[in-house]
Structure formats: structure tokens, C-alpha cells
Design goal:
There is one protein chain. The protein has 443 residues and is an alpha/beta fold. It has one domain. It contains 18 helices and 6 strands. Strands 1-2-6-5-3-4 form a 6-stranded mixed sheet. The longest helix is centred in the middle third of the chain and has 21 residues.
């Protein structure tokens, strides 16, 4: 028996664009797709949303019906096809994401803007959001992920003697759930703020603007804090924890960003729209990651992921992401961007490639299954680093907290794996993606 091509439920984009036109122009936003991967988000404004949305809607409607007649996954989504067909699919998917991203952005800013703290005004308890950020996954990253996902599915299909096919743009789109991405960044660590953010998401859901398919809450459980960590927090982060502070921090659910009631309320409402909703409350990762994720589906069938996190945690997360990728043996930069840097005569490109190569050398051991002790040490260091970043956004410590990250143990410093050490190398990834994007022809 053959496994049929994935049947993605795609609505008529022309009709959808007409039906939701007022929402697309409600809030102007920067719709230029970004070349960066999920760790890179941007804000910004643009006066051309309506024009861009109309053009993108036409392109999506025209490309949605393109098919790859007779081609199987092993002839399309593989490394040999990468320079040609697979990348063309990725480009179409990136372009096709402009309209739903315009919709997503207009909806989020419509519902959340009253909570956003203006850059030219002091923060207030009501203005607890530091920023709303958006990104469209770039074509190089889409191409790489298509290959990885399709390879995995082909392997599973082969084990049971079946086949796997990708026949259209829609089939390829169905393989990815995070082409769209957005963040709600909170400027203060407060369960009330987190609960308000979730309640707003719940209202968007009630109003029929989104469906949630998954909710994940990441929160480390801390039962005690070693004396050497207390010393390091005070010396390196400007956070002095008193006995009453320690008692507070070691309470169950302390690092959960919202109340359990607010999470349950969102989940209950979400299940009325999508009964198969997956909820993971209080997910305690070894590395101590702190955030709330919601996987959503928009009215046009497009899917994406929203991340809600603290401002100080976000800064560390964007650097720690390379360690996360290394542990999963994932490349930190796409093959196409690497080829672009390698073939460029630009001194800047050569410098960026050198930095990225050095970064990969440092983190490579984390992908070796034999390096369990090293990975455990990195996780322990990362855990306390994330906790320290979250404490910086508690009102009590915001005035004394420093901008530096927790300093790594000497053994990790010797390997160049401290977050303060990695920061400039990780920036090279963003610069390389930006350089690649700017070099691409417009149209």
C-alpha cells in the first residue's frame, strides 16, 4: 500500500484575502521575509502592507496548485535536488507566508498593543510587554528542514514497506509547522502579566482568529540553590538572594510564567476548537529553559509558533539555541548560506565564515553521544544561567542586575563554551543570514 501525498487543507487565498482585508491593513508591519532561522526576530514598520499583501495573495493563489507530477520524495526532497527543485519549493513557501504573516501581525497588535510599553515612555504595570516580534523562516532554512523532515518520514515509511510522496507546494507546506513565528516578550517576571498574555491569546481564539494545536509551558523546578551559585549570582549578575528569596524561588511552579488556572482556561477553550490539543504543563528541561509556546493554525490553514518569554531570557535563548542545535546534530547555518559565504570574495563573508567555523568547532562535541559528561555539565551551567536571567526580570532585582551572563565553569571556559564567549560568534550567524538575504534578487 502507498502512503498518499499529504492532504493539506488550504483555503482559497483569493477569497480569504478579500474576506480579511481590513485585518491586513489594521496595523502596518514589516512583511519582508527574514533569512534568519527561528532565533532571529524583528519588529519594524512599513506603510506598504496592503500592497504587499495583495501581491502575495496573488502569488500564493497561483502557486498553490503547482504540482510535481510523478516525482517521489526521494527524487525531490533530497540532497541531490537541493540546489534546484527543493530550494524553489522553499522560495515559494517563504513568499507564500507573507499574507498569513501580515494577518498574524495585524491580529496580534490589535489585541496586544494596549499592553506594549512604548520605547519613549517609562514602563508601567499595565504596559508589561517589551515587544511583539515576528519572523518568516528563510528559504535556505526551509529547504534544509524539508530535507531533514522528508528523510525521516521516508525512513519510517520504508520500515513498513510503504512509500512517501510530495506532489505539490501544499504537500511540502504540510511538513513544516513553523514557517511563521512570533514572540511576545515580557519586560517583567510576573504571573499576572503572563496570565494576561494567555487570556489575550484565549480571546483571539474565542473570536475565531486562531486555533491552537499545542501548548507547552517550560519551567525548571528548583528545590535548592547551591552556595557557589548564590555567590556567583551576587558577584556576576548583581542578584543577592536572601533566605526569604530562596524560599520563594524553591516553591513549586515558581518559574512557570503564568498561573496554572490561566493555562487551564486557555487549554479548555482551545479544546472546544480543536479536540486533539496537546498540553504539556511545567515541562522541566535539563537546560532550564523558561518560556511558553503555542502552536497555532490561522483561518487560511497556515501554521506557526508563538513564543512567550521574558526579556532577559530571550537574550540568552538566542545564544543558547546553537547549543540546542549542536546536541541534536543540527547545523547552525544552512547549506545554501554556507555556500554563499564560501564562494564570496567579500572580506566580510570570509570573516563571518571563519567565525561560524570556529563556533561549530567549539560546539561539535555536544553532538557526540559519548560526551555525556560534557553535555551534562553544559546543561547544568545553562540551567543556572536561565534561572539567573529570569531573576533579572523580577521587580526586586531589576535595578541591580547586570547585562552579563553567568560565567561558565573553568572547564567550559577552556573549551570556549561560556555564553559570554559565544555571544560574538552567534552574532556572526545572524549577520551571515542577513548578508545572504540582501544579496538575493528582488522579485
Amino acid at each position: 500500500m502507498k502512503i498518499p501525498a499529504i492532504n493539506l487543507n488550504v483555503v482559497n487565498f483569493r477569497a480569504n484575502a478579500q474576506n480579511t482585508a481590513p485585518q491586513y491593513v489594521a496595523t502596518y508591519g514589516n512583511l519582508a521575509p527574514l533569512a534568519q532561522d527561528t532565533v532571529n526576530f524583528t519588529g519594524g514598520k512599513s506603510p506598504n502592507v496592503a500592497k504587499v499583501a495583495k501581491k502575495a495573495a496573488k502569488e500564493v493563489a497561483e502557486t498553490a496548485e503547482k504540482t510535481v507530477n510523478g516525482l517521489r520524495a526521494d527524487k525531490v526532497l533530497d540532497k541531490k535536488a537541493y540546489p534546484d527543485f527543493n530550494y524553489n519549493i522553499a522560495i515559494e513557501l517563504e513568499r507564500g507566508a507573507e499574507v498569513p504573516m501580515a494577518y498574524r501581525r495585524s491580529i496580534k497588535e490589535l489585541y496586544y498593543r494596549r499592553f506594549v510599553s512604548p520605547k519613549d515612555a517609562p514602563e508601567t504595570p499595565r504596559r508589561f510587554i517589551a515587544g511583539l516580534k515576528y519572523r518568516i523562516k528563510g528559504a535556505p532554512q526551509i529547504a534544509d528542514k524539508l530535507i531533514a523532515v522528508a528523510d525521516n518520514l521516508k525512513k519510517k515509511a520504508k520500515e513498513v514497506g510503504d512509500d512517501f510522496g510530495v506532489y505539490s507546494i501544499r504537500d511540502a507546506k504540510a511538513l513544516l509547522g513553523d514557517i511563521l513565528g512570533d514572540r511576545t516578550v515580557l519586560n517583567v517576571f510576573s504571573k499576572k502579566a503572563g496570565a494576561t498574555a494567555l487570556a489575550t491569546s484565549e480571546q483571539i481564539l474565542k473570536d475565531g482568529k486562531q486555533i491552537l494545536t499545542e501548548i507547552e509551558v517550560y519551567a525548571p523546578v528548583i528545590t535548592s540553590i547551591p552556595d557557589h551559585i548564590l555567590t556567583k549570582y551576587e558577584k556576576e549578575l548583581g542578584i543577592k538572594l536572601m533566605p526569604k528569596d530562596i524560599k520563594m524561588i524553591t516553591q513549586p511552579d515558581f518559574f512557570c510564567m503564568a498561573t496554572r488556572d490561566s493555562i487551564n482556561s486557555l487549554a479548555t477553550t482551545a479544546r472546544k476548537k480543536y479536540s486533539k490539543l496537546s498540553v504539556d504543563y511545567g515541562k522541566d528541561r535539563a537546560n532550564g529553559y523558561i518560556a511558553m509556546h503555542q502552536n497555532y493554525k490561522l483561518p487560511d490553514g497556515s501554521t506557526g509558533e508563538e513564543q512567550t518569554m521574558l526579556k532577559s531570557v530571550e537574550i540568552l535563548k538566542d545564544i543558547e539555541d546553537v547549543i540546542y542545535k549542536a546536541k541534536g546534530s543540527k547545523p547552525v547555518i544552512s547549506k545554501r548560506v554556507r555556500e554563499f559565504l564560501s564562494n564570496s570574495d567579500s572580506p566580510k563573508a570570509k570573516m563571518l565564515l571563519s567565525k561560524i567555523t570556529e563556533l561549530e568547532r567549539r560546539i561539535a562535541p555536544l553532538g557526540d553521544e559519548k560526551e555525556t559528561a560534557l553535555v551534562a555539565m553544559v546543561d547544568e551551567y545553562t540551567r543556572w544561567a536561565y534561572v539567573g536571567q529570569a531573576l533579572k526580570d523580577l521587580p526586586k532585582f531589576r535595578k541591580t542586575a547586570t547585562d552579563k551572563f553567568l560565567v561558565a565553569p573553568q572547564e567550559l571556559l577552556d573549551k570556549g563554551l561560556g555564553f559570554n564567549q559565544l555571544k560574538p560568534y552567534v552574532k556572526a550567524i545572524a549577520d551571515a543570514n542577513k548578508m545572504f538575504k540582501e544579496a538575493q534578487p528582488i522579485g
